[in-house]
Known about the structure:
Blueprint: H1 7-17, H2 22-33, H3 45-66, H4 81-124, E1 134-135, H5 136-183, H6 190-241, E2 243-244, H7 247-295, H8 306-354, H9 358-401, H10 410-453, H11 457-476, E3 479-489, E4 492-501, H12 502-532, H13 538-563, H14 572-581, H15 587-602, E5 610-613, E6 616-623, E7 627-631, E8 637-641, H16 644-647, E9 650-652, E10 659-669, H17 674-687, E11 698-704, E12 708-718, H18 725-743, E13 758-764
Parallel strand pairs: 1-2
Antiparallel strand pairs: 3-4, 5-6, 5-9, 6-7, 7-8, 10-12, 10-13, 11-12
Helix pairs in contact: 1-2, 1-5, 1-6, 2-6, 3-4, 4-6, 5-6, 7-8, 8-9, 8-10, 9-10, 12-13, 17-18
Amino acid sequence: MRIQLPLWRVILLGLLALATPLEAQVKQIVSQLTVEDTAAPLEKPEETEARLQQWLKETRTAFSRISEPSAETQLPTGIDTAALADYRQDLEQSILAIHRHLKIFATIPEARKALEAARAADAAWTGFDEKPPYSLLLTDELINQQEAIKEKAASYHSSLELFGRTLAGIQEEARRDENTAQDASEDGAADWRLTARRAKSRLLALRATFLQSNAALLRDQAQTAQLQLSLLDRQITLAKKKPSFSEADLAKVKKAAADRQAALHKEEAAIRKRQQDTTAAKVRAQAVLDQLLKATPAGTPLQQTPELALATVKLEAAETRVDALQFVAEALESANQLETMGSEIYQNRKNLLDSNIKAIREPALQSLRTSYDRLKSWEIVVTNELAAVNADISKQESRATSIAAEDPRLAPINEIRAALWDKLAIMQRVSQSVSAQRRMLQRWLDEWDNSNMNRPLAANLSEATASAWSYVKRIWKFQVFQYDDTVMIGGIPITEKRGVALGQFFYATLFFSIAYFISTRINNRMRNAVVRRGHLAEPQAKTLGNWLMIVVGFLLAVATLHFLKIPLTVFAFFGGALAIGLGFGTQTLIKNFISGIIVLFERKIRVGDIVDVSGVTGSITEINTRSSVLRSADGRETLVPNSEFLEKQVTNLTLSNRRFRHTLRVRVALDSAPQAVGAILKECVDRHGLVLKQPEPFVTFDDFADNAHVFAIYFWTEFNDKTDSDIVASDIRFMIEKHFAESGIEFPSAMLGFPYHIKTNITAE
């Protein structure tokens, strides 16, 4: 009697089997998965292999039977073609699973032998056969092996985790399948369903046991890798204690690189020969396509003509082969350059380790760091090219799947795919070489940096100081500017390139700053001396000093260029571009600048003058390069562009002298005696101390009004810091009002809206 266990139990046993030894797993799984009598004894691995062979034979027989053309017509009632397709797929997958399972069984003994050999090697190793010191080439080889085994061990552990998740999915699938089978157990086609059910159960069981066996294999391989890493750790530790890198080692490295370069040259020569054939094939394909195009009516789409479509694809295949071979040849040249770089890297490494002279060690270290940067950039470029080639391959793979097998275009498309795979293969070779050299060089540099960290503090400080000074000198000599200099040699003009280093710019800037500072101090002393002796007023002296410093700055700039040995002709083009390109944008600035120069030298308007510009009256306090400052009587300062003094009407109240005439008008009643009024007005003006005696003030009987006599008082004052014309006029009014009251002189009647009227006018003499 045959008994079928629930699949969820089968998969659960498979999950538990991951933690049990291999032999126990095989015996337990086989005993539980078999459809034979449950009383059968546990099987050995060879018995399990025999049973798998039996299952393979039975599954192939069943698959052949249902694959016959008459299989669909012989289906029982209630079984559709979809169920038949599922049954056929389960059988096909079972055949593949058994093949994989048998392959695993063949690999397990080899893995066990490798594990035992690793245990024995780890236990037996006590040291190297040769005596120390040990070559650095040996250390590099051991470290490379260590990195490769670490990558393998990581992949083993990752696969074990993946198998665990996959077994969980198989368990869930088994539960769903069993529930479906129980729901359909009373169907009329029970025998057929039971057979299909057993095939499904066997497939799931095979998947579970395959994963379990593969996990056991991976555990053995992971354990082997761990033992190998342990041995390598001890070997590397011992080899690093007394390292050496002799001339013989360097010669060995260079010879190996030369041998690889010779092989690359042979391979490249073969590729060049193939290029000639592919180029000829491309020419023939192009000729065939051109001939077909001539025979085809104009405007006919290529896709609608089978011959043209085929010829187009063949030409594309020929072009792809030519491009791929060219790509391969260039990649081989890159690999050749890598070999040359590798020899140089080893040479620099030897100089770095053996030499105690900084002049040799520092360039070697810098060269290694530069090589590392080049390899890192190279690695990025190769990675991008790999991605591009993979994208092209994916495109052609998708294109091939959309074409029928009998389509003649499939053959040239396959040629395109093959050419792209050749490109991918060579790029993978180059990528592997670049990555290997980059990792090795990075390891060397890290070891060097770590070794320097353990050096004495004084040595590290000395090394750091020397390195910093080296960088400073490099920066100091960095050329920030180049120009063409023409010199006459034997009457022949010779043009040569000259450069200006950053250090020269620093010296020039320092020279300009110090000279300008000294010039500023001298200018301030001269200005103060001139003002103190009364030659110029403070505002005029300040303006003249500002313009003088502009001239000094220009002369210092020219001297600085001469110090840098930069001829002014270098800036000829710049000057022309400035005049043309910036002329329109800076015309206002230049106009005001030139206007300021004209105003300064013409001296029609000076600092301290009182002017009236566009209705604004005030005193000029500053005349600058672009504008002047006009301060009004109420303290407000107005910036007036210098061009305003030349383009508009300007009244300078103090151009020739600082005297101003004022007019004050007074109305008195009609019954007042004109002579007495005139005398009083004259007396009041004469008594004020700020009214100038020359010209002498005078009073006029100005007019007869309807109800008053109008008198006018004319007097002069001087514009200075002590005289305010408004206050002077106010004082005179107070005096007039007081004297009129004492003399009984009355003002006109208030009927006109004014008790009295006094009006003042100011007129320049």
